[in-house]
Amino acid sequence: MSGFTPYVAPTLPTNPATAATAGSGVQSASGHAFGSMVLDGIDRLEQVQDRSDQLAVKAATGDLDNIHDYTIAATEASVSTQLTVAVRNRALEAFNEIMRMQVG
């Protein structure tokens, strides 16, 4: 990732009449919706895994000149996958915690 973009919580309207016309998505300070940030991260993970798979095939067929390239790509894919799973698990924990909250 190239940089950190802080999350700024949207303000909720105080007037119920304007609540229906409020913003349609949660956005960060730079204006990117959270969902698109997640999809971009998943796309990057897929690219890293594809590169690792391509280098694995080259290593298996003997077409790879430097085995270190494959080792680095495989490790990067593994760490990226572990991070994605950890973020997913944390998001599910947060969602479940929100669902357990009592309204009223």
Describe the protein in words:
By secondary structure, the protein is mainly alpha-helical. The protein has a domain at 34-100. The protein has helices at 16-19, 34-61, 67-100. Helix 2 (34-61) packs antiparallel against helix 3. The two termini are 40 Å apart. The relative contact order is 0.08.
H and E string = HHH
Count of helical regions: 3
Q: What is the typical, i.e. mean, pLDDT?
A: 81
The percent range for helix content is: 55-70%
* Major β-sheet profile: none
Q: What spatial form do the alpha-carbon principal axes imply?
A: elongated
Compute the CA-based radius of gyration: 20 Å
Please give the number of β-strands: 0
Distance between the termini: 40 Å
Structure class:
mainly alpha
Unreliable stretches (pLDDT < 50, length at least 5) are: 18-24
Report strand %: under 5%
